[in-house]
Design goal:
The chain is of the alpha/beta class and about 290 residues long. It has one domain: 2-enoyl-CoA Hydratase, Chain A, domain 1 (Alpha-Beta Complex). It is built from 13 helices and 10 strands. The strands form 2 sheets. The chain has a 7-stranded mixed β-sheet, with helices on both faces. It is globular. The chain binds ligand L6WJOLX4. Ligand L6WJOLX4 binds near residues 53, 89, 170 and 262. Homotrimer.
Length: about 290
């Protein structure tokens, strides 16, 4: 048994507040794209996305995220914060290279990993919060809206911009978005592929708070998680489940159908063409910088 395994078996509800070290890493030795740490004092886990340059979500990153989310729950962490190691991008959303001219088996595993990660995060029993310290388009917005609380740094963008790429945000992307903004705002924004600035996102309720630094964002997330300190965790989890069970069951029951719809859509020649043009545009812009 290695040290990591020993740490993994610790239940944070049983750790007294006076533990000596501040944080401990729960990352597995094989973790490539994430850092996963638990603050010994608060019992709060922080999952940091770390796949430069833009944290685009590929199969491996999604799989690591899911494992971290499971570990946070198994270890009875008091809550989970998701953030990014980048100074300018929370995550650029799904890795377009996983969907553009994809390999058959890999693209299936990719979508299945996305479904699993989302179900784990959206249905997590522990409080979840996103410290959005950079741009969060599409899949980035999906992760943020799956959390219970969002705080964002100024002058970045967030939203479901799929229609601008010629793809479609699936129903479960939309339903999580609808949990946080009014239906009218959601329909208009998602059909337009609108990316909200931080200020606009705050105005429509897509993010709960705006702060100036990553440290302040983490502190806000910790405050949110601490707001449950007098609440029974079991009662809290069951209550949260009542709000979220419908979307979770719907996706669970339709996973294969959802996969087939995804494959059917992205494999259309016109969609592949649009994605290729979009990727080319990103590359040109990146070279100019
Ligand atoms: C009929 C009913 C149907 C129901 C629906 C069913 C199925 C639906 C089917 C499909 C659904 C798919 C859902 C998709 C969700 C997504 O998340 S798609 C991804 C969307 N993301 C974006 O549009 C963001 C694109 N990126 C950017 O805008 C910028 O990169 C940035 C995030 C603002 C950061 O800007 P900056 O810091 O300036 O970095 P660069 O632009 O210079 O980028 C650096 C390099 O990274 C590459 N890159 C950027 N984003 C991605 C990405 N998402 N995937 C892959 N690669 C990306 C970029 O090309 C640069 O590469 P090089 O350095 O030039 O090689």
């Amino acid at each position: 048994m290695n040290i990591i395994r020993t740490v993994r078996s610790v239940a944070f509800s049983s750790i007294p507040n006076r533990t000596l070290s501040t944080t401990r890493s729960l990352s597995t030795p094989s973790a490539q794209y994430t850092a996963f740490e638990v603050n010994d004092k608060t019992g709060i886990a922080t999952l940091t996305l770390n796949r430069p340059p833009v944290n685009s979500l590929n199969l491996e990153l999604l799989t690591e995220m899911r494992n971290c989310l499971k570990d946070a729950e198994t270890n009875k962490c008091k809550g989970l914060i998701i953030t990014s190691s980048s100074n300018s991008v929370f995550t650029a959303g799904l890795d377009l290279l996983e969907m553009y001219q994809p390999q058959d088996e890999r693209v299936k595993s990719f979508w299945t990993a996305l479904q699993s990660m989302w179900m784990e995060l959206y249905g997590s029993k522990i409080p979840t919060a996103a410290a959005i310290n950079g741009h969060a388009p599409a899949g980035g917005c999906l992760i943020a809206t799956a959390c219970e609380y969002r705080v964002m740094l100024p002058n970045f963008t967030i939203g479901l911009n799929e229609t601008l790429i010629g793809i479609v945000a699936p129903k479960w992307f939309v339903s999580a978005f609808l949990n946080v903004v009014p239906r009218r705002v959601a329909e208009q924004a998602i059909t337009q592929g609108k990316l909200f600035t931080t200020a606009e996102a705050h105005h429509v309720g897509l993010v709960d708070d705006v702060v100036n630094t990553k440290e302040e964002a983490i502190a806000k997330c910790e405050q949110f998680i601490a707001s449950f300190k007098n609440v029974n965790p079991y009662a809290r989890a069951l209550t949260k489940q009542q709000f979220r069970i419908k979307e979770l069951q719907e996706l669970e029951q339709q996973r294969e159908k959802d996969l087939q719809i995804f494959l059917g859509l992205i494999m259309q020649p016109s969609v592949q063409k649009a994605m290729g043009i979009y990727l080319e545009g990103l590359k040109k812009k990146s070279k100019k910088q």
